[in-house]
Design a protein that fits this description.
The protein is mostly helical and about 170 residues long. The protein has one domain (about 5-165). Helix content is about 70%, strand content about 0%. The protein is built from 7 helices and no strands. Helix 1 packs across helix 3, helix 2 runs antiparallel to helix 4 (about 95-115) and helix 4 packs across helix 7. It is globular and about 65 Å long. The chain starts with 6 loop residues before the first helix and ends in a 5-residue tail after the last helix.
């Protein structure tokens, strides 16, 4: 899937982002409060680097679902249909084998966190994953995060080198 996020989809994504960040901002601003949303957002962003598989498919669905739901919400509230697509960005196709292992391990860690999370934290994680994947479908966010695939690949390279080097472990 290679759908662009629409302007209405961006509005919906911003609403979800705001709903998750506002309680933190108006509360104690304890960084731990952002952890569930951050875990989901990180996985959503990493999913956009995947060219296939479950993560790639889910990341590709996020802009489509957001655009459709956003168009319906904005249209219902204002009477104006908005489906104008934003400039498309992408982090996909940049993962090496070693980078794919890093993404896999992070995804498994997030799944383990999901299984232990409360109902509210699961909602925050899902919202984070949606926001991360949707925002990375825009040229601006994808451009700002263009360093990420190389960073993930380098982490995988370092892990591989550590396990292949004599006397390291």
């Amino acid at each position: 899937m290679n759908a662009a996020l629409s302007l209405a989809g961006l509005a919906l994504t911003i609403v979800i982002l705001w709903a998750n960040l506002r309680p933190w901002w108006t509360g104690s601003r304890d960084p731990k409060m952002l952890a569930p949303f951050g875990k989901g957002a990180g996985l959503g962003v990493l999913g956009t680097m995947c060219t296939g598989g479950l993560l790639g498919w889910l990341a590709g669905c996020a802009p489509q679902v957001g655009s459709a739901a956003g168009s319906k919400a904005v249209g219902s509230m204002t009477g104006t249909q908005t489906s104008t697509p934003l400039a498309r960005g992408s982090l996909s196709g940049s993962l090496s084998e070693e980078g794919a292992i890093v993404v896999f391990l992070i995804a498994v860690g997030v799944v383990f966190a999901w299984r232990k999370a409360s109902k509210d934290d699961k909602k925050r994680m899902a919202g984070g994953a949606f926001c991360g994947a949707s925002l990375c479908a825009t040229a601006g966010v994808a451009g700002a995060l263009s360093f990420l695939p190389n960073l993930v690949n380098q982490a995988g390279d370092a892990g591989r080198a550590a396990f292949e080097s004599a006397g390291v472990l």
